[in-house]
Amino acid sequence: MKIRDITTVIETFAPLRWQESYDNAGLIVGRGEDEAHAALLAVDVTEEVLDEAERLGCDLVVTHHPIVFHALKRFNSADTVQRCVERAIRRGIALYACHTNLDSAPGGMSWHLAGMLGVGNLRVLQPAAEEGVGFGVVGELAEAVDTVEFMRFIQRRLGASVVRYSDIASSAVRRVAVCTGAGASLIGDARRAGADFYLTADMKYNDFMMPDKALTVADIGHFESEYCAIQLLFDILSKNLRTFAVRKSECSRNPVNYLV
């Protein structure tokens, strides 16, 4: 199957025009007219993921994060980005990323994560100009639950080693806002939406003060919040390309380690 036929399926769900200006989503290594026989889905392109792709015979790697964000001026294996790009070119492995366009797509990353946590009646938290497009979601749990128990549930459901959180604003949670990845900039949106609880990642020290006890904000970690990209991409591809082999990486891992 031609690579363009595969990427067209992804881009029908999450068009490249929905990516942020700083992003580099799309086909990074390879040509649309080239043939691909199997795809491996991962969060990041790493040397371990490329090992896995070669072992499984996958000549297309689809990730959430683009391996190349900034222009590369040389290829001399000086860092992991250069080594991975060089290796992909040498071994004929195409690299494709679906990043902030997948974040902002209706039914995209935050929608998927919220669904995993039992949050329903979802609507966009920070809408974009196009109808239904935007970052984050807000919705309700079926019934109010204890705030600390909800965080413990999130930790178990997502396999998070640590949950960092602000002062607890209320003992119970019903309305929940979710934004995968770095979402501190949406704390105000979550507050205006009347959320009791906001789940995101990559919060800095002062970000934990911003809620001012109007809502509880929790940080589960960037990788932990975005690991669901693998299943989301699998669903998109497998439902539309029933005769094309799509595999979920077992070597996609968090680069952040915790001592707890």
Automatic annotation (TrEMBL):
Residue stretches spanning the membrane: none
GO molecular function, a single term: hydrolase activity
Matches recorded under InterPro entries: DUF34/NIF3, DUF34/NIF3_sf
Keywords from the named record: Hydrolase, Metal-binding
Pfam families from the UniProt entry: DUF34_NIF3
Entry superkingdom: Bacteria
Binding site residues for a divalent metal cation 1: 65, 103, 222, 226
Binding site for a divalent metal cation 2: 64
Record-level GO cellular component terms: cytoplasm
SUPFAM superfamilies: NIF3 (NGG1p interacting factor 3)-like
Family: Belongs to the GTP cyclohydrolase I type 2/NIF3 family.
Record's subunit section: Homohexamer.
Official protein name in the record: GTP cyclohydrolase 1 type 2 homolog
Organism: Alistipes dispar
